[in-house]
Specification:
The protein is mostly beta strands. The protein has one helix and 19 strands. Strands 1-3-6-9-12-15-18 form a seven-stranded parallel β-sheet, with no helix packed on it. A seven-stranded parallel β-sheet has the order 2-4-7-10-13-16-19.
Length: 137
């Protein structure tokens, strides 16, 4: 197979590759920080200035710019817009999270659309829902 060449600043990260050895994920620039044992899976994109804690997993997802992702977070098949904070131990699957959202620790989000500036409380479980600040007031 072909050798995969990574920029020097990415060599410490675990980035999965496709069958032919191509990197199937994309990190926008050197301002992205990834914690220990964080895995960026194939088909994922991470925007500039985003930070990940330890032991995170991102699969087939887009993470916007300037997001803060806590420790032990699992994100799959989702789109996370800009300036989103996701707390420790959260799970996000098959969802869209708009800009300026806060997802507090241990929340579980599946098949949801979360509107801009929404606050998901700690330990919340949401499935097949549309959440917005209009419904929060």
């Amino acid at each position: 197979g072909e050798a995969v060449r990574l920029a020097e600043h990415l060599k410490k990260y675990v980035i999965e590759t496709g069958a032919k050895g191509h990197v199937d994920s994309y990190i926008e620039d050197t301002s992205v920080e990834m914690g220990q044992r964080t895995v960026l899976g194939a088909g994922s994109v991470v925007g500039a200035g985003s930070r990940f804690g330890d032991k995170c997993s991102v699969k087939k997802s887009v993470i916007g710019t300037h997001c803060v992702i806590g420790n032990g977070v699992k994100i799959s098949n989702s789109v996370v817009h800009n300036h989103v904070n996701i707390g420790d131990g959260c799970v996000v699957q098959n969802s869209v999270i708009c800009s300026d959202v806060t997802v507090q620790e241990q929340a579980n989000i599946r098949d949801c659309f979360i509107g801009a500036s929404y606050n998901v409380t700690a330990g919340a479980e949401h499935r097949d829902e549309t959440l917005s600040t209009m419904s929060q007031s």
